[in-house]
């Protein structure tokens, strides 16, 4: 029991500190992408009848990168591996962070206990496993740490413990909204090529946990489904999947840079609010708390309306909107939760100072 409590405390402490290193400052352009071919070396991943996951992952990863290098010369492509070698999960994220990457894409293949029972592609972002299926996928991919010599980087995380995932899921990336956007574009491209669309999912993947940029994990298909394996093991199938990934990334890059260019100048002229937020009474929605101040123009806040920041009890709290009714604040809270900020909550200011929602309701009635 003591060991369990120590484990819980350790994981929760790491999750609390996560925002401190998830704050890599990005510019106005998508300049660097990390392409991660899942598994490798002694870690074969899932097995098919004629091939294995690590081989298919690498084949698609290299084709995906080649498309970017050929068509988007302003983007630097970095691979976590370009050959059949073992790379620790923590090192894959570290490669991305060291290179101040703008996007991280991890490529995998799925499998089921019963052959030929499942088909299609799906894309994951870091988040809470909504069902047993998502949890099973995460456990399978995270099991790679059992092959590592040193697991200190994961704070004794047990990839087979459901309890560990409950704590792990409390982690929420600052870039979750952007990750969901990229994941959605990937799935739409897969569907446009006739692939069965299994949708965008959330689960606790260690390889995504410590990346400080928009990050996704793609499951190309089910390697233990005979037809799927034949498709993924073919030149046509690998080219089709790599091209879909490229087109999704190109669209994501184009939209981001276009919107950033349009909105960047007026946004930089706005000064973030600190300590107090004017001398009136209203409701707002808090969606992020950081120990390090980040400009409200950071691309992590892209798509969030009326972002402001105030300092309270030694931390920087990021809020959205100023509302005279609680109902309006609830509507904004729902918008933020749909964007991935599941823990967004309503706060209140009374005459420019932080107060309770009840105090604000009473003050606004007068």
Description of the structure:
- It is a single chain.
- The protein is of the alpha/beta class and 366 residues long.
- It folds into 2 domains: 2-259, Aminopeptidase (3-Layer(aba) Sandwich), CATH 3.40.630; 282-365, Alpha-Beta Plaits (2-Layer Sandwich).
- The protein contains 11 helices and 11 strands.
- The chain has helices at residues 2-21, 53-71, 89-98, 132-142, 162-168, 176-192, 206-209, 226-232, 235-268, 326-338, 357-365, and strands spanning 32-37, 76-79, 103-110, 121-126, 197-203, 215-222, 282-290, 307-312, 315-323, 345-350, 353-355.
- The strands form 2 sheets. A 6-stranded mixed sheet has the order 2-1-3-6-4-5, sandwiched between helices. A 5-stranded antiparallel sheet has the order 8-9-7-10-11.
- Strand 10 and strand 11 (353-355) form a beta hairpin.
- The protein is elongated, with a radius of gyration of 22 Å.
- Mean pLDDT is 78; it is low at 1-26, 142-148, 162-172 and 262-278.
Largest sheet: 6 strands, mixed
Tally of discrete structural domains: 2
CATH class of the largest domain: Alpha Beta
Amino-to-carboxy terminus distance: 53 Å
Q: Globular, elongated, flat, extended or rod-shaped: what is the shape?
A: elongated
Kindly report the spatial arrangement of strands forming the biggest sheet.
Answer: 2-1-3-6-4-5
Q: What is the third-level CATH name, the topology of the largest domain?
A: Aminopeptidase
According to CATH, the homologous superfamily of the largest domain is Zn-dependent exopeptidases
How large is the count of helical segments? 11
Number of strands: 11
Q: What sequence of helices (H) and strands (E) makes up the elements?
A: HEHEHEEHHHEHEHHEEEHEEH
Calculate Rg over CA atoms: 22 Å
Q: From the helix content, strand content and strand pairing, which structural class follows?
A: alpha/beta
- Percent of residues in helices: 40-55%
Which CATH architecture of the largest domain would you pick? Answer: 3-Layer(aba) Sandwich
Q: What is the typical, i.e. mean, pLDDT? A: 78
Low-confidence stretches: 1-26, 142-148, 162-172, 262-278
Beta-strand portion reads 15-25%
């Amino acid at each position: 029991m003591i060991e369990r409590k120590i484990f819980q405390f350790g994981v929760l402490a790491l999750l609390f500190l996560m925002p401190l290193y998830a704050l890599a400052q990005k510019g106005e352009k998508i300049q660097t992408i990390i392409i991660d071919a899942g598994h490798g070396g002694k870690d074969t991943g899932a097995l098919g009848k004629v091939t294995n996951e690590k081989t298919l992952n690498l084949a698609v990863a290299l084709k995906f990168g080649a498309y970017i290098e050929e068509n988007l010369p302003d983007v630097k492509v970095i691979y976590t591996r370009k050959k059949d070698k073992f790379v620790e999960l923590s090192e894959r994220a570290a490669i991305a962070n060291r290179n101040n990457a703008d996007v991280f894409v991890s490529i995998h293949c799925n499998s089921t206990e019963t052959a030929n029972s499942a088909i299609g592609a799906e894309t994951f972002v870091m988040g809470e496993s909504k069902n047993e299926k998502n949890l099973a996928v995460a456990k399978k991919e995270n099991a790679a740490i059992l092959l590592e010599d040193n697991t200190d980087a994961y704070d004794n995380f047990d990839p087979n413990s459901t309890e560990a995932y409950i704590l792990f899921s409390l982690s929420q990336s600052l870039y979750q909204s952007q990750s969901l956007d990229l994941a959605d574009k990937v799935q739409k491209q897969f569907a446009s090529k006739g692939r069965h669309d299994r949708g965008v999912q959330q689960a606790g993947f260690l390889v995504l946990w410590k990346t400080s940029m928009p990050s996704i994990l793609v499951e190309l298909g089910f390697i233990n489904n005979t037809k799927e394996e034949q498709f993924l093991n073919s030149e046509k199938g690998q080219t089709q999947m790599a091209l879909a990934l490229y087109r999704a990334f190109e669209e994501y890059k184009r939209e981001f840079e276009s919107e950033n260019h349009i909105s960047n100048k007026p946004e930089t002229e706005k000064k973030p609010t600190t300590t107090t937020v004017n001398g009136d009474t209203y409701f707002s929605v808090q969606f992020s708390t950081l120990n390090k101040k980040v400009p409200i123009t950071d691309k992590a806040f892209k798509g969030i309306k009326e972002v402001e920041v105030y300092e309270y009890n030694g931390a920087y709290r990021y809020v959205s909107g100023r509302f005279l009714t609680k109902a309006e604040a609830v509507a904004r809270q729902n918008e933020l939760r749909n964007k991935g900020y599941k823990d967004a909550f309503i706060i209140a200011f009374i005459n420019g100072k932080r107060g309770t929602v009840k105090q604000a309701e009473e003050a606004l009635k007068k």
